[in-house]
Amino acid sequence: MPPRRRRRSRLPTARRSRRGLLLGLALAIVVAIAIGETAADVVKSSGPTTLMQERSYVAAVVPIIDESDALIPWLTDLRAHARRLGRQGIFAALARLESGCQQVESNLASLGIPGPSRHSAALLGRVFTLRYKAARDYAGAMAVALAGQTGGLALTRLEAAAGEMRASDRAYRSFVASLPRAAKRKTVALPISRWTDSARWGPSSLAHYLSVLAADPALRIVHDLTILDISLEPPVLLITPTTTTTTTTTTTTTTTTTTTTTVPGASTTTTRPSPPATTTASTLATTTTLQLPPPNSTSVVGPTKRLAVVAVVANAGDVAEHAVVVRAVLVPLRFAARPRKKGRKASLRSLPAAQQVRSRIGTFQAGGSRDLTLPSFKVESGVVYRLRVTISGSPNGPGTSDSEVVRVEVGS
Q: pTM for this structure?
């Protein structure tokens, strides 16, 4: 008889599933503990590094902020003591203020240390950008006010400068508030950095400030671009009409007759001993030395196909002028009157077209003068032209331009 097989008892299904669940839960707890310890180690190691970087940034920007605040005395002198500074001192202070603000902006851009956040870095950049714009608007306002220009432009620009400085102060306070507290501890203290106050930079105060400066004649800017002489190439042979004056001087021993024939735009003098009652007139060649032909005269040149204008210009004002340009416009007026041979028909040709040339000087320093040979014109014989020469700078205003008109006849 075969032996019976003994069956092994098995665990219940519910008991087996509970055991697997407990093992899985234990494994998950072990993994979570490991991840937590790793994360803690990372936080512990990165925390001091981040704090050190933030404190380094604060320590690095403080000298730049101090550099910006070092410009405040220039601003104070301009606002409180402008008349004492004088015109040259005012523009020297404005130049120092503008260049200093530009340098501060450049120093921040080249810092090389990231801020605690993009927002903080952007706020500090905005502070210095606004102050640079304010310096430029201040300079523009003073240039307009002292040039005697009306219309409120100076006040508009100065109010814009004041608004930009107030905005920069607000941006600076926001920058300080945006820094982490830990970054501001145990490091260099941040300065206050305030550029404006409501009393000095209000609209009514600024309007009074500008009116006082504009009324002071010692501060007034003098613009005086002028044309000293116009000559032509080929040279002028004759200027019509001509005038002649004679002056006679007599002494006890000799009589000297000085005969001066003045051709408009030219002068030559001849002196010689002569009998007492003798007056001698002489015919002179035309020369032009820093003179302009008189009104309603005509400068006659020989037959030519090209005509060049030589202009002597000067800046007789007391400030430099910018974007200075000299222009010449040649407009044909009519054909020259000349005797017509008997039996010959009148010419039916038409007048040539008007032409314009120019030469750029750019910046023209006060007290300077220049000899300019402009590009030549194409001309026709037997034509009378009107030549207008103009010098102009920027901005437009009294004394920033001058113009002279000369009538030219090309001989045939």
A: 0.56
